[in-house]
UniProtKB/TrEMBL annotation:
Pfam families: Orn_Arg_deC_N, Orn_DAP_Arg_deC. Pyridoxal 5'-phosphate binds at G240, E276, P277, G278, R279, Y373. Its cofactor is pyridoxal 5'-phosphate. Its EC number is 4.1.1.20. This is Diaminopimelate decarboxylase. The active site is at C344 (proton donor). It is an enzyme of class 4 (lyase). Specifically catalyzes the decarboxylation of meso-diaminopimelate (meso-DAP) to L-lysine. InterPro entries: Ala_racemase/Decarboxylase_C, DAP_deCOOHase_LysA, De-COase2_C, De-COase2_N, De-COase2_pyr-phos_BS, Orn/DAP/Arg_de-COase, PLP-binding_barrel. Keywords: Amino-acid biosynthesis, Decarboxylase, Lyase, Lysine biosynthesis, Pyridoxal phosphate. Pathway: Amino-acid biosynthesis; L-lysine biosynthesis via DAP pathway; L-lysine from DL-2,6-diaminopimelate: step 1/1.
Length: 424
């Protein structure tokens, strides 16, 4: 469920007409609904009823806007970060350091030192060499790092290949059959305190069976580790629960069904469970608002050319992802069209042969379910400025990231002395 609804013939974000935001801010622009974020946090928490003190660490990579993170901080969430930059964003938004988990395969020594100085709650280590580096960094700072190993369970998540992370050929985690040796290594390294086990098999999961299989392996591993004298107090089950994009496909499992499965599998583990939801919290809470530039006749179906492009919303080009496209002021008739952006790439295509509201030049359209992996993956290809972002709360709205002036992009380039006329 989201809070983007038609009222008096105009699509609104909560109580604000999207046409007003387009007029004031211009297009393309991302728009987020506070009420939707709050509702999804409530639903996810409710799904975990019966789980003792769950540690819910929002996956910052899904949407790192500081206003979004500050909203989640007020709701008591923690954060799952995968870079020093995400860590700094989370802290700037007010997320508590002790509720932060640091994941990712390529943590640098500088990032480790930053996280240790901040006092984060857990490092999810993804290799033995990473454990050795963190040991050296922690020892040099005179502190102890709380750690878990991310285990690769060799489970196929059944999702898109580019967002699958739990198979043996994927780059993530320590192989399951090498886990005991990795934990033995960590136990003997100074500056580390082994406290948990972590797993994450992929994103946009549409079936609970792979997650159940991975979690069952984690349960067996916890028992083995304890038998070998390790004190395991946390189990990070990752995130990845899918959201509905394409209405022609079966609905992903509900948070309630996920919570029921978790309670069943983890009964008797006697650990604090960690969850890393991202898309399921913010996916439906955001849309990308765009304006039709022109409608061009194609050999079969017309091309609707909009002012948003693949640099603003990369998912369709990168993953062949499906986003529902709605007219902000629908006239009633529909037609079949190809929806494309202005970038000089054939890949700058949002949809082909898509039945949709009939639109004309100047009309506004909304790409739905764009709150996750939307603005965060935007770039400046074709020298297009980064997309602004707006947050809505009931009748109130505010720009939470300004449109980047093209002059800022140009000014970031420095000429070498032999090309700098002023230097000459």
């Amino acid at each position: 469920m989201d809070h983007f609804d038609l009222r008096d013939g105009v699509l609104h974000a909560e109580d604000v007409p999207l046409s007003l935001i387009a007029e004031e801010v211009g297009t393309p622009v991302y728009v987020y609904s506070t009420a939707t974020i709050e509702r999804h946090v409530h639903v996810f928490r409710e799904a975990l009823a019966g789980v003792a003190d769950p540690w819910i660490a929002f996956a910052v990579k899904a949407n790192p806007n500081r206003a979004v993170l500050a909203t989640l901080a007020r709701l008591g969430l923690g954060a799952d970060v995968v870079s020093g930059g995400e860590l700094l964003r989370a802290r700037a938004a007010g997320l508590a350091a002790e509720k932060i988990v640091f994941s990712g395969v390529g943590k640098t020594a500088d990032e480790m030192a930053l996280a240790l100085r901040e006092g984060i709650g857990q490092f999810n280590l993804e290799s033995e060499p990473e454990a050795e580096m963190l040991s050296a960094v922690a020892t040099s700072l005179g502190v102890t790092a709380p750690v878990a190993f991310r285990i690769n369970p060799n489970v196929d998540a059944g999702t898109h290949a580019k967002i699958s992370t739990g198979k043996s050929e994927d780059k993530f985690g320590v192989a399951y059959d090498r886990a005991l040796a990795a934990y033995e290594l960590a136990r003997n390294l100074p500056g580390l305190r082994v406290q948990g086990v972590a797993v994450h098999i992929g994103s946009q999961l549409t079936d609970l069976a792979p997650s159940r299989a991975a979690f069952e392996k984690v349960g067996l591993l916890i028992a083995e580790l304890r038998a070998n004298g390790h004190e395991i107090t946390t189990a990070d089950l990752g995130g990845g629960l899918g959201v509905p994009y394409d209405p022609s496909l079966p609905l992903p499992p509900s948070p309630a069904a996920y919570g029921e499965m978790v309670r069943d599998v983890t009964a008797g583990w006697n650990v604090r469970l960690v969850f890393e939801p991202g898309r399921v919290i913010v996916g439906n809470a955001g849309i990308l608002l765009s304006r039709v530039v022109r409608v061009k006749q194609g050999s079969a179906d017309p091309f609707v050319i909009v002012d948003a492009a693949m640099n603003d919303l990369l998912r369709p080009s990168l993953y062949d992802a499906w986003h529902h496209i709605r007219a902000v002021v629908p006239r009633g008739p529909s037609f079949t069209a190809n929806i494309v952006g202005p970038i000089c790439e054939s890949g700058d295509t949002f949809a082909k042969k898509r039945p949709m509201d009939q639109v004309e030049p100047g009309d506004l359209v909304a790409f739905m379910t764009a709150g996750a992996y939307g603005a965060t993956m935007a770039n400046t290809y074709n020298s297009r400025p980064l997309t602004p972002e707006v947050m809505v709360s009931e009748t109130n709205w505010a720009i939470v990231r300004n449109r980047q002036p093209i002059e800022m992009l140009i000014a970031a380039d420095d000429l070498p002395p032999w090309l700098d006329e002023e230097a000459a």
